[in-house]
């Protein structure tokens, strides 16, 4: 599913003293099957933007075009769009409510009108993909789980709807490093196995450097930069101006070069750094 955002502007509480322009003429295209990272400082407009993609917010101006159809045109039912575009909110575990994990994950697919057998298959498959064994966890209350596990249940609930596009708003927020790696790994698996388009909202350069095909940088309601991680992390000045900077390991390499080393400057993951530094040590 290709997603084209055209001249999109959004104003909260328009025509009141609290009026706030959150998006200003955004033009972006997300291609089918891409792993996209949307990054930017708090308040830069990321959440506002993603809520337009599944029709939760309606543009003040502009269009959202999914597979060549303007989703806000009269002919389109937004309930249909929401089946295709799944949105995992920040801290989704607060939305868990059923007494067992199985029932919680089954809620969405049941609402799609699937029969019991199909619902069961969806639950099993999505639990597997988020790394929760069905037989071990199906009867467990979601409230007995650790923070990272709860979040995995919440993500499984959206995955079980089998959307073509999955948007995740800060899915690693508040997790410890192990929980973060676990969730990011699962999201990467989802992308590989289902070939879903993934839009990951994050403010962690380290997280997005590892997994995104493309990065879109938001600042002040505008998309100020986009490209592959390599292209985006070259723009250190722009990233610093918008309060982001590059991954810590990229700064480390730059500092080493200032001290006379001659290392490639397009290093932005720990693994890449490990490789160049171990070559250096072996010299
Ligand atoms: P981000 O997700 O990047 O943190 P948001 O899209 O949440 O950014 O916010 C963009 C701007 O819109 C911010 O200035 C924020 O204060 C404002 N904003 C967000 N939600 C609301 C709201 N419900 N009412 C009024 N202003 C809002």
List the SSEs and their pairings.
Blueprint lengths: L2 E10 L7 E11 L4 E6 L5 H8 L7 E6 L2 E2 L7 H7 E4 L12 H11 L4 H15 L3 H4 L9 H13 L5 E5 L7 H18 L2 E6 L2 H7 L2 E6 L2 E6 L1 H5 L2 H6 L6 H11 L11 H13 L1
Parallel strand pairs: 3-8, 3-9, 6-7, 7-8
Antiparallel strand pairs: 1-2, 1-4, 4-5, 9-10
Helix pairs in contact: 3-4, 3-6, 4-6, 6-7
Features:
4-stranded antiparallel β-sheet; alpha/beta; Rossmann fold; 22% strand; 283 residues; globular
Please sum up the structure shown.
With 283 residues, this protein is an alpha/beta fold. It has a single domain, classed as P-loop containing nucleotide triphosphate hydrolases (Rossmann fold), CATH 3.40.50.300. It is built from 12 helices and 10 strands.
**Proportion of beta-strand residues:** 15-25%
How much helical structure, as a percent, in the residues?
40-55%
CATH superfamily: P-loop containing nucleotide triphosphate hydrolases
Shape: globular
Query: What is the spatial order of strands in the main beta sheet?
Result: 6-7-8-3-9-10
